[in-house]
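DM between two lab members

TW: hey, do you still have the CTP synthase entry open?
JB: yeah, one sec
JB: this one, 534 aa:
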Amino acid sequence: MSGIGKGITTSSIAKILQARGYAVTALKIDPYINVDAGTMNPVEHGEVFVTKDGMECDQDIGNYERFLNQDLYGYNYMTTGAVYLSVITKERNLEFDGKCVEVVPHVPEEVIRRIEFAGHKTKADFVLIEIGGTVGEYQNLLFLEAGRMMRLKYPGDVLFVMVSYFPVPSMIGEMKTKPTQYAVRSLNTAGIQPDIIIARSSMPLDKPRKKKVSIFCNMQEQDIISAPDTSCIYEIPLTFEKDKLSDRLLKKFNIKKPRRAKNGMDEWKQALCVAQRVTRPIRIGIVGKYFGTGAFLLSDAYISVIEALKNAAWAEKRAPELVWLNAETYEEHPDALEELSQFDGIVIPGGFGARGVEGKVAVVEFCRKNNMPYLGLCYGLQMAVIEFARHVCRMADANTTEVDPETKYPVIDVMPEQEENIKEKNLGGSMRLGSYACKLKNGTRAADAYGHVRVNERHRHRYEVNDVYRERLERKGLVVSGINPERGLVEIIELPDHPFFVATQFHPELQSRFLDPHPLFLAFIRAAIKKSSA
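TW: and the structure you got?
JB:
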C-alpha cells in the first residue's frame, strides 16, 4: 500500500549492493497518467523532486540520491503518461512499420526499453525498479506485465521483491499474515512469483510467521526479510543485512564470487551511530501550507527539506526537533507569531499560489526584527524580498505578480520566457528546471558556507526577483550574495547585520545527502545552535 516503504526499501537494497562494491542505479515507475510529477498535488502525492537535468519526478528519486550519494537523471523516472506519450508519438512517426499498435506488447516493451536505457547509460551492475501502487490495482498491471516479460527476456537476471504489510491489530495483539498471502496470490495472477518478501510491520517478524508465509506463499523462510518500524530510515540497510539480504540476492543471481567493497558500510554506520545517540535538541519551525490531509498531518510534501535539516543537525551532533507551522494561522491570528520565539531557527520552503502568503511575509518580518535564524527556499526567498521591500524600502504594496498581477511594486515578477508559457497554458515541465550555475560574492555568509565562489544548484520556479528594483533593495541593505552568471538572475540574498538571514531562489535541499549535508543547511543549523546556547 502507499507509504508502506517501497521507496526506502529500494534505496536500502541499492545501498547494500553498492556497499558490496557494485555499480547501482534505481528507477521509479509511477502509475499516473501525468507525464511527470510536476502537475501532481503535493498533499496527495508528496514532494516534487527535481533531478540535475530538470526532470520533475517522485520524491523517491530523492531517497535514492540520498542513500546512494549520487545524482540520478530524467531517465530514472517514468509514468504511465510518459510511456503512453512515447508509444503514441512513435506511432504518429510511423516507427511501428505499419503494425497495429497494441497495449500489449507495445506498452510493456516501451517500459523495458526505458529500463534497459537507464542501465546502459549508468553502466550499472544492478538496476532496481520500484513499481508504484499496490498489487491488484488496475493502474500498474502494464508494469507488472513488463516485469514478467523482462524475466522471459533475461532469464536468471531478473528478481522480484515484494514489500508487504503485516498488521498487528491492537485488539488482537497478534501479527496477521493473511493480507500478505492474498497479495502474493494477486501477484501470481499477473504471472509473477516473488523471490523475496520484505515484511513491513510495527515489530520484527518471528519464526512462526515466517514459516507460515513460507508455506502459503511458496517461498523459503530465509527469503522473507523482517522490516520493522524504525525511528531512522538510514538504519534500514543494516536491518536488511541482519537477515543477510545481499547474500540472498547475489545467490539468487548465481553470482558465485561476490565482490566486497573495501570499506563497505563503515562510514554509513559511523554517521548512523551519531544520529542515534545525539540527545541535545535543536528546535526548527517549518512554515508551510501543504501539511493537512483531512484529520492527518502529511510531511511528505517537504521530505527533502526535512532530511536536509536532519542530516545537518546530526552532523553538528544535535537532535533535530522539527515542528510544522501553518502559514495561514499567522494571517488569521497575528498574535500567534509570538510562538516563533520558542524556536532556534525558522525555515520557509518552496510553494506556489496566494494561500498563506501574508502569513509567510509576517513570519519573515518577525525573523528579521527578532534576530531569528532564517532560511528561505525558493518561495521563501521571494517572501523575504517582498517583506524587505514593504517594511524597509517603504514600498507598502510590494508583492509578487503571481499573487497580485496589478501590484504597484512587482518586486517578484514572472521570468520573460515564462510569460508565453503561461499565456499559452504550456505549464507542464516548462518552469526553470534543473541545475544552473551560481556565482557567489566574496565575503558573504553564503560564500563562507560553501567555501568557494561558484556552485551549481537545482531550480524549480517561474518567478524571480525583478531586476528593476534590485538597486533600490541593495541600497537599503539587502545583499545579493549569489547570481546566475549567464543571466544575472538573483540566486541568493542575505542580511549582513543579522545572526543568519539567508534565502535562495534554488532548492539546496535537493542536493543534501545523509553522508554529505548541504553547506547552507549546515550554516543555518550552526546559527540555530548559537542562538539556542545564548
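TW: got it. The first helix runs from residue 6 to 19. The CA atoms of residues 231 and 276 lie 9 Å apart.
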